Amino acid sequence: MVRAVVGANWGDEGKGKITDMLGQESDIIVRFQGGANAGHTIVNDYGKFALHTLPSGIFYGHTTSIIGNGVALNIPILFNELKEITSKGVPAPKILISDRAQIVMPYHVAFDCYEEERLGKNSFGSTKSGIAPFYSDKYSKIGFQINELYDDIDYLKEKIARTLEVKNATLKNLYNKPPISVDEIFNKLMEYRDALAPYVADTFTFLHDACKDGKNILLEGQLGSLKDTDFGIYPMVTSSNTIAGYGAVGAGGIPPYEIKDIVTVVKAYSSAVGAGEFVSEIFGEEADELRRRGGDGGEFGATTGRPRRMGWLDLVATRYGCRVQGATQVAFTVLDVLGYLDEIPVCVGYELDGEEIDYFPSTTKLKRCKPILKKLPGWKCDISGIKNYEDLPENCRNYIEFAEKEIGVPITMVSNGPAREDIIYR
After folding, report:
1. Is 12 assigned a catalytic role?
2. Which one of 2, 6, 175, 194 counts the least CB within 10 Å of its CB?
3. Among 201, 224, 221, 168, which residue's Cα sits nearest to residue 94?
4. In this model, does residue 16 exceed pLDDT 90?
């Protein structure tokens, strides 16, 4: 069976923990989109890790971890992560990298930084990981697939030269930066070729055969519905499709009809990194308190370390996010954080131009929306360590069940702490 773990909101929902947890019953775990621009935080017996490229199932000896063709592969970050986890006692994982995956080039990262600098106050709040320039090159057909490193070297040099004609013109005329040489890029790619050689594989055929053999395959998504290129808060989105349906493309070898279960992760409150519309956002001391108490050691980006923007649970956005994903079940995370509140506001609708709406509009309208809040009674106690749903305080259960009714998808898992075992099944 093929199962996907994806986010309903702006990312930061806790997908890494859920993937790590479900990895125990998986044979194969696949990263299928995005790059090192977002991190999944995992706490287990080996310690605390923020993974940006490696699939979150690498801590299990029985799994094969795959980096699919849809991933923006930053090779130095990949090997830094491998070095970090093995230095902390994690056994060397079995990793396969699609020979069709494309490489984040050094100039992608540079161009990302230069463009944010050029845009100034109009910047996108990029993580400066090279993601937008990478996907721009991919769809302009001037990216570099891994398989190209192992074939005609003369052709590779010619392609580098053609690509750098455009890059260097942009560097000179738009950014006023020095040019890049063909030898510099060629030598870097040869360095990558040697490092990647033990891991490169035809993962399309591997996954096709795994589906036929009935293996348990877990697709790990990055970010969330509201950062999807098509369905998110465009243009303040990421440059890849963050939805489960793209798993059939970005993993490769998996027919769409094989994705039977879509676990959509929803945060019990809201947070976001970067610019863009955020209707239920809160500010000042209220936001600072939630940020300080939130996540695992505070709400700060796993990739950038930036303070996350904070808000209350937005049930309009979450319902939409679950529909975009095609959610079959919801994992409700960081519920334990809210135990300090007497009352917990939740966003149940939007006011748009004086009218109340219950749907998530396109960004041009979303900019004019104001939150309609409903306050639910808090439970005023620590719920960490509780294992049975019935043992949760009544007001805590009421909060979960209210959210479930509004979202319209069963909440089957409730996370009440950062560790793998901090989970309540319903």
Report:
1. yes
2. 194
3. 201
4. no
